[in-house]
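Exercise 7 asks you to align residues with C-alpha cells for two separate proteins.
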Amino acid sequence: MPSPPPATMNRRFFVGAVSRLPTGRTATPPRGPSRSVSSAAIQRKQAFAVGDVDDTIARSMATILSAKVGAPLALGASAPRLETAAGTPLSALADGETLYLDAHGAAPEEAGVPGAAVLFGGLSPEQLATLVLSKGLQATYAGKIYLNGCNTATGAGADTYAFRFQAALALRGVRCIVKGNGGYSQVDGATGHTLVNPPTPVGAQNRTALQDTYRHAGTLKAQVERDMKYVKDNPLAPDFSAKVAAIKQANTDMRTALSTVPGLRAATYLPDKALRPTLPAPVGITHYESANGRYSAVPASVGRSGRTLEQHVQAALASYNSKWKFNPSAASTAAVGVLGGPFASHTARLMAVRWYLRLGPRPPVQLVAVGDQLSAGSSLYGFLKAEYDRWV
C-alpha cells in the first residue's frame, strides 16, 4: 500500500470583513450585521482556540464568542487560547453545555480531496484529550465538544479525528458528545455558523475555482495599485493614457471576478448538517486502544459497566463466599465450582451464567458442563443476578 501523502495544514476559510484580498484562505465581508445575542438568553458555553492563533482563527473566535457563546471579546482583547488559559476553566462546564474548540486541522490530501485530520491545533487526538482534562474537564461532563476546524470528521468510522478524540476521552473516563467537520470549513461572520466544503472531487473542484477567483482578483488589484502609483509619479509619461485605460480595465475585470464569489462560495461551502456529524456520547466504556495505538469497539466480554463478565462473576463469587451459609444447596455448590473454573471462551461463560439465572437454554456439553439451575431465592442466585445486571 503506498504511503499517504504528507499532512498539510488545512487553512479554514473565514467569512468576515477584510481590508485586503488574501491568497488561498479568504475572509469576505459579512452578508449582514452581526447578530446581537443576549448573554442572559443563551445557555452558558465556552470557546477556546487551540494552537496558533492567526488572523483566521482570531476572527472566527471573535464571531463564535459573540454569536454562539454570548461573550463578545473586549475591544483589543486577544482570543482565549486553551493552552495558556489560567487555572481550570473547563471545570465550570455543566451537563448539556457546549465547549467550542477552534483551530486549524491538518490532513493528508490527494488530488485536492482531503483525508482524516491527523492534527488539530497541532495536537493529536490523545494530546488534545490530555489538554482538556488538564484544563479542568470533569469526568462527569456529558455535554458536547465541537472540534471546529477543517476535516475533524473527514474519513470513515474510527479513522476520523473526532472519533479518535472521543475514544481518547472515554479511555480517560469522560463520555461526552463530540462534533466535527467533514471537510474544509469556514465560519460565517454574520451568523457564526460553520459551513463545510464536501471532501469529494466535486467539492475540490469548487474550492479550487473559488481560490483561483480570489487569486485572480488579487493579481488585478496589485496591478491596479502599481499602475496608479506609476501614473501619479509620471503624469507626463508617453504611456500615461494607456496606463489609465489599463487601470480602468483591470478594475472592471476585478469587479467582474468578485461578482462571481458569492455564487462560488455558496456552491463550495455548504450549511448541510450532514457535513457536521455528531457522535453520540458513549455508553459505558465503548472503545479500547490496541497496542499499535488504534481504537476499536470493545470486546463483547466488556459490558456497559466497562468491566468484563468474568470480573463480575468473580465479584459475585467473592460476595457469596464471604457470606455465612447454612447447608448450601448442591446446585449452588456445583455452580460455584463451574463458575470459578476456567472457560474456553466468553460465549461459554455467558451461556453458563444465563443458564444458572434461568435466562437461557442449557449450553452444549461440548462448550461447558453445567449442573442444575439455581433457585431464584438462593444467595448465589442473588449475587450472580446483581452482577449480571451490572454487566449488561
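Second protein for Exercise 7:
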Amino acid sequence: MCDEASIPDSGTSRGRGEGPLQRARVSTHVARTGVYALNITVSQDRYGEEIVWGFRTNCPRYVIETSRGHRDEPHREPIVLAASGRPADVFFLPRPGSMTIDLAGVSQSAGDPEVFDARGASRGVLRTAGDGRASLTLPAKEKRDGTLWRLHLPAAHAVIEIDGVTRWERSDPYQDSCCWTPDARSWFPLLAYRWLVTPYHRTVYGAPGAAGEIRFQLHANTEREEPISCALEFPDGSWPARLDADLVTLPARRPVHVALHYTVPPAGEARTCHIRATPVNAPGFTTYATLRVVAGDAPASQPLSMPIVLRPYRHENAQFGYLPAYPLANQ
C-alpha cells in the first residue's frame, strides 16, 4: 500500500440531505511504471448509495471501475452522476452486438443526452421523457471496432445503464467489469491486460547458494494471440536471476507460464527483481511483478505466533511465504 486517508462520517442523519463537503489527499512517488489502484470504500455502505464523491489527479492515464457489494439479482454496476450544474461525458467501449442505453434521473431542462462513436459521428439522441427517463437501442449491424464511444450529458445528473458496460450477457467480451472514463485521453486498456502477469508479488525462501525456479503466469483477456515482451529489472543491482524467455505468445484468453531461475543470496540477505511484461500490440501498457528471494526458512514452515495478523493490501505470501492462486476472469 502506497498511501491511505480517511474521511470521517459527516454526522448527518439519513434522509436529511447531503453533509458538508470534505476532502482528503493521497499521493505517492511512482518509482516504477505499472498499474496502480486507488480504492475508495465507504463504511456501512456496500452499494455506494449514501455518498457522492469525486476526484482530481495529475495521473495522465486512468479509468474508473465500479464494483459494489453483491445483490441477489443479475450483476449490475450503474454509473451514477450527481453534478447537475455541469455537462459530462462518459467514454466507454461499446459491445459488438445490439446495445441498449438506459438513463434515469435526467435533467429535462438541460437538453437530451447524445451518443457519439469514435469518429465523432452521432449515433443517436436519448429523448428524455417527463419522468426523467431516456433509452436508446443500437442495432448489432453497426460497426464498432473496439474504440471508445462517448455518451454526452448536458447536465451530469443521471443513473446510466449500458449493455456490456454496466450489465452483461455471457457473450460480452468483458463481463462483470464496469470501466469508463470522463476523459478519452486518460483511457488505457486495463480490461484486456488486467492480470497480464501474476502473482503480483512473490516471496520465496531457500538455503544460501541454492538454485530455484518460480513460474509467473502471463494472461490477456483478448480474442487474438498476444505477443508479450518480458524482461528483468534489478532495483538494487543485478544478481543471479534470469527468465527462460523474453518473448512469449499468448493464445486467445489462455495463460502461459514463464519461468524465472534464481540463486538464493548468502545467509541473512535478500534479493529483489521485477518481471516487466509489455504487450507488443499495446506498448503503451506495461506492468510488472516482483520476486523477493530470502535466505532462510519460510515462516509458513515454522510454528506461527498467534493471533495471526493480516495487514491491509499485504498478501499472505509476503508474510508467510506460500503461494495463492489468482483469478483470470474479469471479476
